[in-house]
Every structure is written in structure tokens, then in C-alpha cells.
Amino acid sequence: METLEQQLLTNKELTPIFKDTCAEIYHVVTDNIVYVVMKGLTKNQCYQVNAERALTTLQRFKSIKLLMDFSNLVMMSPEDQRWTEDVWQSQAVKAGLKFMATIRPDNLFASLSINKLMDNIRANASFENANFASETEAYEWLIS
To answer: Which residues contact 73 (CB under 8 A, 6 or more apart)?
Structure first.
């Protein structure tokens, strides 16, 4: 079965923006969504750099929707969790973010940290956000 990423690439709806060892950032042209696929471990500020790149991409395309795919994430450090709550969240509001969908990690420990992070963001954010088990559910929520 094709992933959402593969389907969008096949239909030429997905424009690659940036790619490194821990993340890939795309722009979904048809629905003006910034799509970030995180990979493996977040270390050496790789997560933070790519989270900031996602916001720069939001501004570049004047998008208000962000899809964060954490399904392949192995672990998010406590430092990255704090940084997301303390720094990134306010930057996201300034960048114009209105809707954020996240895809839960398959890894249990990563899933627990992402769920906790999303609960904290949900309690304090001025943008709507929801956490999903699959990329299709997350994407459907963003386009509804």
C-alpha cells in the first residue's frame, strides 16, 4: 500500500523543499499544506532546525496548515520537547499557523513523549491541533 507521501508524489502534488538525515519537508501544492516527515532520532538540534524550516516554509507559501509525521521517530529528547513548548509554539503563531496535525510514532516511547507534548501544546496553543494514528486521517482532518 502506498503511503500518503508516495501518492502525493505520484500525483505531482508534493513539492520537495528540503531533505536531510532526520527530516524531509514538502509543500502539498493542491491544499497548501506544509508536510514534514521526521526520521529516526532527533539529535544535535536536528529536530529544532527542521521545525524552524517548517515555519519558514509556512511563511514562504503563506500556508496556515502543518502536517508533522512522527511515525518513524524513535525518540524525542526532553530538551526538544521543552524547546517546542517554550520557543517553537510562539514562533508558529507568528508564522501564521492555524492548524497542525501530527501522526503518532510507531515506537512506544516516542509515542508517549509526542502525546505528552501535544497535550501541553493543545492546552496552551492558539492554533488547532490534533494527533492521529495514520497519515491519511491527519491529512483528511487538515483538508476538512
So the answer is: 38, 39, 40, 41, 42, 105, 107, 110, 114
Decide: 70 and 35 in contact? Cβ < 8 Å.
no
- 8 A C-beta contact, residue 85 and residue 117: yes
Three cell numbers at 140?
483528511
What residue type is 78 in one-letter code?
P
pLDDT of res. 108: 78
Residue 6 and residue 35 in contact, taking contact as beta carbons nearer than 8 Å: no
62 contacts: CB under 8 Å, gap ≥ 6: 32, 96
Q: pLDDT (tens digit, 9 = 90+) per residue, 54-63?
A: 999 999 999 9
CATH number of 4-143: 3.30.750.24
Extents of the domains making up the chain: 4-143
> Do 105 and 70 touch, CB atoms closer than 8 A?
yes
pTM of this prediction? Answer: 0.89
